[in-house]
Amino acid sequence: MNISFDDLHKAFESRIRLGIMSVLAVNESLDFTALKEFLDVTDGNLATHLKKLEKEEFISVEKSFIDNKPNTKYSMTPNGKEAFDNHLQALEAIIKSQKES
């Protein structure tokens, strides 16, 4: 049986980007520090992956100040939710096809 992986979105191939989208799927928004602690990554590594998802318009960024300190929050966009849901459905289809074979 041939399985098509074409429906998997390349933006989510990275474990860090997959982690970002997973955590934003269940939280309205999270700030940079919370994402960094949850994913256990460096500032530079997280920033690189966040920029990639922002460029794809899968996440939105809100910058503000809390107690005179900069705070950057990230949330999933409707476009990101649709792409992530489609990615998960493709994974489920692949897994289901293997269970049935």
What does this entry look like structurally?
By secondary structure, the protein is of the alpha+beta class. It has one domain (15-95): Arc Repressor Mutant, subunit A, CATH 1.10.10.10. Helix content is 55%, strand content 18%. It is built from 4 helices and 3 strands. The protein has helices spanning 15-26, 32-39, 43-55, 78-100; strands at residues 30-31, 59-66, 69-76. It has a 3-stranded antiparallel beta sheet. β2 (59-66) and β3 (69-76) form a beta hairpin. The radius of gyration is 16 Å and the shape is elongated. One of its GO terms (biological process) is regulation of DNA-templated transcription. Residues 16-95 form the Winged helix DNA-binding domain.
Biggest sheet descriptor: 3 strands, antiparallel
Which regions are unreliable across 5 or more consecutive residues at pLDDT < 50? none
| Euclidean distance between termini CA atoms | 8 Å
The quaternary structure here is single chain
Beta-strand percentage? 15-25%
Keywords:
single chain, 101 residues, alpha+beta, elongated, WH-like_DNA-bd_sf
Show the helix and strand layout:
Blueprint: H1 15-26, E1 30-31, H2 32-39, H3 43-55, E2 59-66, E3 69-76, H4 78-100
Antiparallel strand pairs: 1-3, 2-3
Quick structural gist:
The protein is an alpha+beta fold and 101 residues long.
